Amino acid sequence: MTSPAVPSPPARRDLWLAYATAPFVMGYTDVFGLLTPLYATSLGMSATEIGLLVGARSALGVVLSIPAGALMDRYGTRRLGLFFALGTVALAPLYPALHWFPALLLLQCVVGCLVSLIVSSGQTVIALLGHGEARYIGRWSATARLGTTVGPLIAGAVWDLGGPWPAYAMASLWGVPLALALLRLREPASAIGGPAAPPPRFRLRDALPRLSDYTSTFALLAVPTIAITIVVIFLRNATGGMQTSMYVVYLRDIGLTGTAIGALFAAVEIAHGVGAFFSGPAVDRLNPQWTLVATTALAIAFIAATPLLGGLFALLMLAQVARGLCQGAAQPLLFSIQSKAVGRHRQGAIVGLRQTMNRVAAILVPPVMGVAADRWGVNDSFLIVGAGLVAICAGLALAVARVRHFGSAPPTP
Q: Does 304 map to a domain?
């Protein structure tokens, strides 16, 4: 058995450009996550319709995240990320022109998929540039929180000042700096070729999903480390589904403005960035199993307890900060474990699998909360869904207790 070669440090120029994309990559999710339920509420939609609308943004992502990840491995992450960004810039202004629920549902499917694939491309770029090291992923994640903090604050303020048209215009302009940064970023090298190697010629039929892409990607779940971390991804993203559906409805019901809601969205992201920034240096001292389990369970509890906080803004803010710290502290560790468990030529595939599970959670949780809210009330919907997620987390704890060498990279032959 030979020891693996030590990878050369990433070029500083490429790293800085990747870090520059991070706020706009991740901020897009929160900008639309805030604006969509606000717009749906302004149209008088029911809780079930709002839940379906929020969940619809992930419908196409479930189907297309894996083939998109495979395309990134074959044709380059930068090229595809630029395409996804420009598509979102073009489609965002259509939202306020649509008042019919089915039309909004269709637009949500398309734009939500593009935003999801933007996130996939950004995460793949930093995984390739940083060789899957937690310190680079942690810095990228911390930088990304600038966007997820500022984005909803700006979106909420613009909504309060001008309503849906200016707010969605802001959402469109958000993608312009992302596109400019991607234009200057060099394509990261993969196992297929070096930085100077031209990508294969793209053919239209290559954009069609391939059965082999699905089977080879889902085969990664045979690795216990991958399977366990994918369940963690589902549980972590489920809290985001709670936040972008009934959380916004609850806050509007107790009289908070769009700006105040944006501030609560920003709080969790600032705390997430703080946690992510400090997790890299501490990663060697963390027990990966119980770090992931404990932080996931706590994050679920902090948002599920929302109706128990009495509508007090200070307590709502404190819960958001605590949830952000929990999720931020573990995210670089989680991504690093997954990145090191596969080769460089499968980075797009593992991100695609991760985004697929993200989309599954985002599809299931908002409609379930919406139905529960219509049947038992908005307050009880938090407790019902939270109890279900905690039960899954308990099963996850039993699973990780059985896996040895969790989070270690596979040996190099």
A: yes
> Could you tell me the end-to-end alpha-carbon distance of the chain, in angstroms, rounded to an integer?
5
Contacts for 3 with CB less than 8 Å, ≥ 6 apart:
412
Look up the CATH number of the domain holding residue 238.
Answer: 1.20.1250.20
The whole domain housing 59 covers: 12-188+210-400
In a domain, 205, yes or no: no
Gap between the Cα atoms of 31 and 35, Å rounded: 6
Distance, in Å, from the CA atom of 283 to the CA atom of 229, rounded to the nearest integer, reads 16
Helices (H), 92-221: 101-129, 134-162, 164-173, 175-184, 211-218
Q: What is the CA angle 59-346-360, rounded to 5?
A: 20
Distance (Å, whole) CA 157 – CA 92: 18
Largest CA distance in the chain: 65
- The Cα–Cα gap between 122 and 84 comes to 11
Residue 404: phi, psi to the nearest 5?
-95, 155
Question: Residue 205 and residue 368: Cα distance in Å, rounded?
Answer: 36
Strand, coil or helix: 190: strand
Number of folded domains in the chain?
1
| Angle formed by the axes of helices 347-376 and 224-242, nearest 10° | 40
Cβ–Cβ contacts within 10 Å for residue 306, how many?
Answer: 23
Helix 59-75 to helix 101-129 angle, to the nearest 10 degrees?
Answer: 30
Note the pLDDT tens digit of each residue in 18-66. Answer: 888 888 988 888 898 889 888 998 998 888 888 888 878 877 777 777 7
Environment class of 8 (CB within 10 Å of its CB; exposed 0-12, middle 13-18, buried 19+):
exposed
Residue 141 is encoded by which pair of tokens? 């994640």
pLDDT tens per residue, range 373-397? 888 988 999 999 999 999 999 988 8
